[in-house]
Amino acid sequence: MSTISQWRLRAAFAARLSRMYAQEVPAYSTLVDVSREVNEDVLRARGPDAERLGSISRVSAERHGAIRVGTPRELQQVARVFAALGMHPVGFYDLREAAASAVPVVSTAFRPVDGAELARNPFRVFTSMLTPGDLRFFGPDLRRRLEAFLAARELFPPELLTLADRAAAERELPRQEAERFLQLAVQAFELSPEPVDKAWYETLERISAVAADVGGVRSTHINHLTPRVLDIDELYRRMTERGIEMIDTIQGPPAWKGPDVLLRQTSFRALAEPRALRTPDGSVVSGALRVRFGEVEARGIALTRQGRALYDDLLGRVDEQVARNPSRARADLARAVWERHMPGSEQELAAGKLAYFTYRPHPARPRDGSPPPTATGELVRQGWITAEPLVYEDFLPRSAAGIFRSNLGGEGTRDNDQPGTAYDAARLSGAIDHDVLDPYALYEEQQNRSLAHVARELGLPHPPG
């Protein structure tokens, strides 16, 4: 009997989820079409340089999804589903602290971690969990009601979880079981036709639209499914030309003449989707909810901790400039700050240990018997090795919160006089019984492996520094 490997399960799940979401949110199909057109145009214009951060086949197939769950139990179950696909929780994001408005969730992202697995299919899912115990958002009575509501629902059927555990353990599934797993997994993330309790949803919506989307319904669903584009500014322009209402800004670093770093994101605005609503007298009426939107992303180079500290410092400088110059466009101010303070080339980023690269012996390296230098920068400069940037595979909490906020109808309510509930990666790891991995450690390990290979190939006594 033939079997389906984890990466093929992952690719099939991403493709089926994309087809399902296109049926539910037709504007998503437009987003995918425009992304493909932009990528083809960029490839024609830039040639091989357009694939500096990933082959066009990878970029075209790339998707990230976003879902929201309510409890550690639900997060643990979704971790089992994604483990079946070779996806691990990476990074901890506290969106409560990334926005002044009411976004009462903490998040992680499930994704492949091995370089070869990422190259085969880099599907990732940004997964947020509600924090009912945070008194800044939920008073004691509302917390009790919310936790009781969440405890009574079932997001993932036992059959799906059993198949997921088998796929995770065996790293494959027989073809028939694989088909059943994929059917159940896609169904788990479809928008449910079950009527929504109107009064309960509105109670939570007064606190936060995100809280209502998580805790006001008896199922979960894909909030957005994100294609990757090589020129996000051009995509924004073309989507607007087609009459698609986009959010006001592109989140993340500005467009500038230097290398792309980290992640830039934007989206079309959340759509008013028809939903059945159950009123207090038990009748069902037609209504509309705005919870799902179409996000798109452009990925850049992964930054080291030092590089990320510089990025965060520049964000602070931009905020100061915006406060001093309210009539100036933020994008223009940000570009000026970047051009003054951000290194303008990959070589400068590498020399300053601000970004991650993989290194390989240069096929045309010197062969005259001269000893190679022992410093990474000199090896690159003298043509002994090549440096290829590592793609940033993760997320930015401030950008994620900005996307959430720009797609919600109101700011909600938040009482900052109340104490917050402490969460970090360790607490989340314990809650879901899966280690939440440190993304910096993953990038550094990949870079160090390449430097160890360079040392062996060049006969160096130790990896270059």
Automatic annotation (TrEMBL):
Its EC number is 1.13.11.93. It comes from the Bacteria. Its cofactor is Fe(2+). Keywords: Dioxygenase, Iron, Oxidoreductase. Signal peptide: none annotated. GO terms for molecular function: dioxygenase activity. CDD domains: VOC_YdcJ_like. It is an enzyme of class 1 (oxidoreductase). Pfam families: HGLS. Belongs to the 2-oxoadipate dioxygenase/decarboxylase family. This is 2-oxoadipate dioxygenase/decarboxylase. It comes from Streptomyces filipinensis.
